[in-house]
Amino acid sequence: MLDGRLTEQRNPRSSGIDRMSSLEIVRLINGEDRTVAEAVGREAEPIARAVELTSGRLGVLDAAEMPPTFGTDPEIVQGVIAGGCARRPPTRCGRRTTS
Q1: 57-86 average pLDDT score
Q2: What burial letters (b/e) apply to 34-58, b meaning 16+ CB within 10 Å?
Q3: Cα separation of 1 and 73, whole Å?
Q4: CA dihedral for 5, 38, 58, 83, sign (positive or negative)
Q5: Is residue 38 a contact partner of residue 52, using CB atoms and an 8 Å limit?
Q6: By the 8 A CB rule, do 17 and 25 touch?
Q7: Are 63 and 87 in contact, with CB atoms under 8 Å apart?
Q8: Which of 22, 37, 76, 99 is least surrounded, with the fewest CB atoms within 10 Å of its CB?
Q9: pLDDT by residue (tens digit) across 27-57?
Q10: Best CA proximity match to 61, nearest among 84, 36, 89, 38
């Protein structure tokens, strides 16, 4: 396996997806999506704490990603954060970074 992250691993439940009917595929995907909601429910309190700490900054970062990712006009989606520009995370204009 090249990537050890859980989200990048093969899902054994979908290993035969190429042999499934459309209905089986829809049910499989729906069942997998349900596991996400259950996981979020189990971790609701820590997730809420993280949202309280980071939501404004994440919104600004999401807005900043729209033009390079989707080619939108920078005026269409704008990030606004309490405290103004001084509170925005640093950016590298014109460059996408990955971590």
Answers
A1: 84
A2: eeeeeeeeeeeeeeeeeeeeeebee
A3: 39
A4: negative
A5: no
A6: yes
A7: no
A8: 99
A9: 999 999 999 999 999 999 999 998 888 767 7
A10: 89
